[in-house]
Each structure stands twice: as structure tokens, then as C-alpha cells.
């Protein structure tokens, strides 16, 4: 019954860049909600955050969540 359900809440680097985070800010579920990037409901509220590597960042940020290997390289 649980096949195909997501195991994390994905967010791409390009979306984080477009949200306008400032140098040194923390990227977490809460900060992403405040910026309007995510609106988790139901089961999604309990999922961990996973940062995916689609895109690049122009500032250094602190991440609270799992980074994909491609996100670590960017």
C-alpha cells in the first residue's frame, strides 16, 4: 500500500535561489514555509527535507535537511 509514497519533501537548489535567501541564512522546513516554497499538509508535515541539486546557489547557506550528492557539488 505504501509503494510510491515519497519518503522526503524535495526542494531544488534553483527554487531556494529564487526565494531570495541571504548569505548565511538557514534553510529548513520552517524557513521554506515562510518563503512560500512549500506548504506541506497531511503526511508531508512529518517528512524530512531533501535538497536536490537542480540549479546553483550564489550565496552560502546553512541547510537543515538531507542533501543529495548533486546538491553537495553545487
TrEMBL record:
Residues 10-65 form the Large ribosomal subunit protein uL15/eL18 domain. GO terms for cellular component: ribosome. The keyword Ribonucleoprotein applies. SUPFAM superfamilies: Ribosomal proteins L15p and L18e. Keywords: Ribonucleoprotein, Ribosomal protein. Signal peptide: none annotated. The keyword Zinc does not apply. Pfam families: Ribosomal_L27A. This is 60S ribosomal protein L15.
Amino acid at each position: 500500500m505504501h509503494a510510491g509514497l515519497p519518503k522526503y519533501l524535495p526542494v531544488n537548489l534553483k527554487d531556494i535561489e529564487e526565494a531570495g535567501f541571504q548569505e548565511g541564512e538557514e534553510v529548513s522546513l520552517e524557513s521554506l514555509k515562510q518563503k512560500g516554497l512549500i506548504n506541506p499538509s497531511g503526511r508531508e508535515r512529518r517528512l524530512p527535507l531533501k535538497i536536490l541539486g537542480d540549479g546553483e546557489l550564489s550565496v552560502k547557506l546553512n541547510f537543515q535537511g538531507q542533501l543529495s550528492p548533486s546538491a553537495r557539488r553545487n
